[in-house]
């Protein structure tokens, strides 16, 4: 059971807005998850972007939420970067505006957040780290490249069973402009819609 505000956000998702070309980009991840579900194996997704500050976190949180919403068991979503920086505050604020319960667990240059989508589920722990950090899985995962820089800059991800590029435009382009809040929300909702579409296709 998702928090009511997130439920309302999810109701606004329109899969018809996803083009056929884009669905073809998403299909390899659907196939990966379906294979794991059919084999009754844990599904591990590591969503990767250069700085692990915006898109990879949004993707991780929405993917974990979508798995819970559709009742797809044994799904663990992670995120990482080619370098560690910090989860950008506007990314956390955008999730909060969509109904996620966000608590700051530690301050500092790389804050740690608890991000909850349901009162009865474990939170996603959000902080910036490299994709091969001890917090993330070592093997048997899909490496989902959420930005073109990471896709180009990481020709090899150790331990990845499959590498899947699903790139999103960086909301960072709006930082410091009056459009910042709107741009972050737009990107978050795009990512949410696509992650929910992916999990809606999984047959249990």
Describe the structure.
With 204 residues, the protein is of the alpha/beta class. It has one domain: Response regulator (Rossmann fold). The protein is built from 6 helices and 7 strands, in the order H-H-E-H-E-H-E-E-E-E-H-E-H. The strands form 2 sheets. The chain has a 4-stranded parallel sheet. Helix 3 runs parallel beside helix 6 and helix 4 packs across helix 6. The longest helix has 21 residues. The relative contact order is 0.23.
Principal-axes shape call: globular
Mean pLDDT, rounded to whole units? Answer: 96
Q: Percent helix among the residues? A: 25-40%
Number of strands: 7
Gap between N and C termini? 18 Å
By CATH, the topology is Rossmann fold
CATH homologous superfamily designation: Response regulator
Count of helical regions: 6
Provide the succession of SSEs. Answer: HHEHEHEEEEHEH
Q: State the name of the first-level CATH class.
A: Alpha Beta
Largest sheet: 4 strands, parallel
**Structural class per helix/strand content?**
alpha/beta
Q: Regions with pLDDT < 50 over 5+ consecutive residues?
A: none
Order of strands side by side in the largest beta sheet?
Answer: 2-1-6-7
The CATH architecture term is 3-Layer(aba) Sandwich
Number of domains: 1
**What radius of gyration results from the CA coordinates?**
16 Å
Percent strand equals: 15-25%
How would the blueprint of this fold be written?
Elements: H1 4-11, H2 20-38, E1 43-49, H3 55-69, E2 75-81, H4 89-97, E3 101-106, E4 112-116, E5 124-126, E6 141-145, H5 148-153, E7 160-165, H6 180-200
Parallel strand pairs: 1-2, 1-6, 6-7
Antiparallel strand pairs: 3-4, 4-5
Helix pairs in contact: 3-6, 4-6
């Amino acid at each position: 059971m998702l928090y009511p505000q997130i439920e309302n956000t999810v109701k606004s998702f329109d899969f018809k807005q996803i083009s056929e070309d884009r669905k073809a980009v998403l299909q390899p991840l659907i196939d990966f998850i379906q294979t794991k579900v059919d084999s009754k194996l844990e599904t591990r997704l590591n969503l990767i972007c250069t700085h692990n500050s915006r898109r990879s976190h949004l993707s991780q949180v929405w993917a974990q939420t979508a798995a819970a919403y559709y009742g797809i068991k044994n799904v663990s979503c992670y995120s990482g970067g080619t370098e560690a920086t910090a989860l950008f505050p506007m990314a956390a604020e955008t999730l909060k505006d969509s109904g996620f319960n966000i608590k700051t667990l530690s301050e500092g240059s790389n804050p740690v957040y608890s991000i909850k989508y349901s009162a009865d589920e474990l939170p996603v722990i959000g902080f910036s780290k490299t994709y091969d950090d001890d917090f993330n899985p070592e093997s048997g995962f899909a490496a989902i490249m959420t930005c073109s820089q990471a896709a180009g800059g990481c020709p090899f991800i150790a331990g990845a069973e499959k590498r899947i590029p699903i790139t999103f435009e960086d909301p960072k382009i709006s930082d410091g402009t009056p459009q910042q809040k709107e741009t972050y929300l737009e990107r978050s909702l795009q990512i949410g819609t696509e992650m929910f579409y992916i999990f809606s296709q999984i047959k249990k």
